Amino acid sequence: MSFAPWLLMLGLVAIAVIYVFRSPGNTGTRVPFGFFQGQLEKGNVKSVKVYGENLTGVWKKTPAAPSPNSDKLTEEFNTIIPEGVTKDPQFWQKLEKSVPEYDAAPHEPSYAQQTLFWLVG
């Protein structure tokens, strides 16, 4: 009995797990989109990277938690951009104008995801 297929599957699972934990949605503290917008209007957003509907960034000064029940915020944050907002050109113009370090990338499956989809069928 050969162990090669099992080792291959184990390696692919390990790659998938690493990918999930390194995805943009796992960067910093998750905040509500409305909270992000409030901080953007206050000029408290230092940098932003947008990956499809995932937005990650760094605060200029780490704000207090959005609610008493929330975890303490870290310097880095992430949020999900609502679908209607992603199609609003005014949001993108405001973001580009307000944040000096702004970057965006399309949300496309990575090679690891494509390989996993291909293997699963």
Write a brief structural summary.
The protein is an alpha/beta fold and 121 residues long. Helix content is 42%, strand content 21%. It has helices spanning 4-21, 33-41, 83-86, 89-98, 111-120; strands spanning 29-30, 45-51, 54-59, 76-80, 101-105.
Observed structural traits:
121 residues, alpha/beta, Signal recognition particle alu RNA binding heterodimer, srp9/1, 5-stranded mixed sheet, 5 helices, elongated
Question: What's the structural blueprint in terms of helices and strands?
Answer:
Layout: H1 4-21, E1 29-30, H2 33-41, E2 45-51, E3 54-59, E4 76-80, H3 83-86, H4 89-98, E5 101-105, H5 111-120
Parallel strand pairs: 1-4, 2-5
Antiparallel strand pairs: 2-3, 3-4
Description:
This protein has 121 residues and is of the alpha/beta class. It has one domain: Signal recognition particle alu RNA binding heterodimer, srp9/1 (2-Layer Sandwich), CATH 3.30.720.210. 42% of the residues lie in helices and 21% in strands. It is built from five helices and five strands. Strands 1-4-3-2-5 form a five-stranded mixed beta sheet, covered by helices on one side. A hairpin with a 2-residue loop joins β2 and β3. It is elongated and about 60 Å long. The mean pLDDT is 80.
CATH topology: Signal recognition particle alu RNA binding heterodimer, srp9/1
Strand order of the largest sheet: 1-4-3-2-5
The quaternary state of the protein chains shown equals single chain
> How many domains would you count in the coordinates?
1
Overall mean confidence score, pLDDT: 80
Beginning-to-end CA distance, first to last residue: 25 Å
Order of helices and strands: HEHEEEHHEH
Shape descriptor reads: elongated
- Computed CA radius of gyration, to the nearest angstrom: 18 Å
CATH architecture grouping = 2-Layer Sandwich
The helix fraction, in percent, is 40-55%
Unreliable segments of 5+ consecutive residues: none
Major sheet details: 5 strands, mixed
CATH class: Alpha Beta
The chain-level structural class is alpha/beta
Per DSSP, the total helix count is: 5
Number of strands: 5
Strand content: 15-25%
